[in-house]
Amino acid sequence: MDNSRLKKACAKAFSVTAACFIMSIVLVSSVYALFGWWIEPSMIVAMWILFAVIWLLTVIRMYIDGSRWALTKPYVIKNLIFMPLYLAVTMVFVVFVFGGFDLLTLAASAGAFLAVFTVMQVITYIRYKAATDSMNDALRQYQKEHPGDGQE
Q1: Residues 87, 96: Cα–Cα separation, whole Å
Q2: Quick one: CA dihedral 144, 145, 151, 152, positive or negative?
Q3: pTM (2 decimals)?
Q4: What is the DSSP string of 94-116?
Q5: How far is CA 21 from each of CA 1, 15, 17, 27, 77, rounded to the nearest angstrom?
Q6: Residues of 39-55 as b/e, b for ≥16 C-beta within 10 angstroms?
Q7: Contact at 8 Å (CB) between 9 and 62?
Q8: Which alpha helices (DSSP H) does the chain contain, by range?
């Protein structure tokens, strides 16, 4: 196990998970305020546990990103591989928070998860595509400025 790659994966996973944690706190607080519900202390503890597990999954995901196998795979494929794990953790959290198995709540939560996942995939794809296009444009420009096979 490469310690430097693990440290980088931990740091990167922390920033991603922290952003998701903040967004979820805002979303949950807004929904609870809208309906006039109280947030129980156990729910706050459950959210910390949820994001600790999500952070661990993200560390594993980021660590695998540095492997030779993952470097040959598109970003979207790697996300699709880990998506069921994230979905399962989220559904366990929903069952715990709402105190039981309610099919409507699980369906709404799964739908919200899939909608957010899809939107994030599109945003990430556009961002990576723009970076790739920029790199390809720079390579074409370099090739125009330096014609030939590079040997002098």
Answers
A1: 14
A2: positive
A3: 0.74
A4: HHHHTTS--HHHHHHHHHHHHHH
A5: 28, 10, 6, 10, 24
A6: eeeebeebbeebbebbb
A7: yes
A8: 3-35, 41-65, 68-71, 75-97, 103-145
The structure tokens listed for 53 are 């597990």
Q: Residue 149: what pLDDT?
A: 59
- Distance, in Å, from the CA atom of 103 to the CA atom of 100, rounded to the nearest integer, reads 10
Each residue's pLDDT tens digit in the chain (152 positions)?
678 889 999 999 999 899 989 988 898 889 889 999 888 888 888 889 989 999 999 999 989 888 888 888 887 888 889 999 999 998 888 888 777 778 888 898 899 999 989 998 899 889 888 888 888 888 899 888 887 655 54
**Cβ–Cβ < 8 Å for 64, 70:** yes
> Which position has the token pair 């999500």?
54
Question: CB of 121 within 8 A of CB of 79?
Answer: yes
What are the tokens at 113? 């998860």
- Which amino acid, one-letter code, is at 56? L
Q: Are 63 and 9 in contact (CB under 8 A)?
A: yes
